[in-house]
Amino acid sequence: MDIPGILDFLKVLAANNNREWFQEHKAEYLSVQADFEELLAGVIARLSPWDESVAHVLPRDCTYRIYRDVRFSSDKSPYKTHIGGYINARGKKSNHCGYYLHLEPGNCMLAGGSWCMPADMLRAVRQSVCDRIDEYRAIVEDPAFKEYFPVVGESHLKTVPKGFPKDFPYPQYIRCKDFTVACRVEDEFFSRPDFMERIIDVFRQLKRFADFTNETIDEFETRLLEEISFELSPAQPLRVISSLSLQLIFVLSAGERISSPNCTSSEVSS
User: Which helix or strand (DSSP H or E) is residue 175 part of?
Assistant: First the structure.
């Protein structure tokens, strides 16, 4: 497993981001892919003793295509210049929180959370934060957590979201547009002999945050399934199923992620 070698390949790819070069170096990319999956396998093996929910996850199910979707982009570079893996018990396209590893020269990170949640689900998570603010603060304000994750959310509203009390004493915790966290690491991080143990230390802290968020998401999805069951009941008149219910059926049956029109995450929505 050669993580510095992965970063070196990505640097060269960034300078030669064209199909001709990539085809000539396809064997190198396949070696990089194998090394990255070996890294993911090691992380999963070390996560599983204290997070049994990911024990069944396979490395190949965590990774993303290196090919960029350039249809609606002014940048027509055909390949991503990073490689990422999302270890998630419900699948990499789930709304559930999971563990994300991102390798990119000069921009490596260990991250996780819930990106691009549907509006109703996001509202439910915000409501849980309000209702259980002491429990939430005990997680996100713990120095052991803040050492790795100083900020929750990639983007934030300027004001308290509609429907929430304007005088809520901790508005910063419900203004998040997403419930994600990220720990930036230097490229040299992966050259240390104990880098794997350090990854696990970071993800141990992430799990506390993920458990809080996933509990609300589970309750939300259970409620939606009950709604769907009622709507599809033969004893009831045929009713129009809400679009969000249809999305959930699609997610649970096909393993696909609900995508928000405003979702701009380049990796998790790949």
Answer: none
Pairing of strands 99-103, 83-87: antiparallel
Q: Residue 142 carries which DSSP code?
A: -
Which residues, other chains included, contact 241 with Cβ-Cβ below 8 Å and sequence gap of 6+?
228, 231, 232
Distance set, CA 227 to CA 22, 38, 183, 222, 223 (Å): 49, 42, 38, 9, 6
What percent of the chain is helix, strand and coil (3-state, nearest 5)?
A: 50, 10, 40
Pair type for strands 108-114 and 83-87: unpaired
pLDDT in tens, 93-127: 888 899 999 999 999 999 998 888 888 889 999 99
* Rounded Cα gap, residues 153 and 58, in angstroms: 27
Alpha-carbon gap, residue 86 to 265, rounded angstroms: 13
- Whether residue 220 contacts residue 119, with contact meaning beta carbons closer than 8 Å, is answered with no
| The two structure tokens encoding residue 1 | 């497993």
List, edge to edge, every strand of the sheet that includes 83-87: 83-87, 99-103, 108-114, 179-185
Position 264 confidence tier, pLDDT thresholds 50, 70, 90: very low
| Residues across the chain | 270
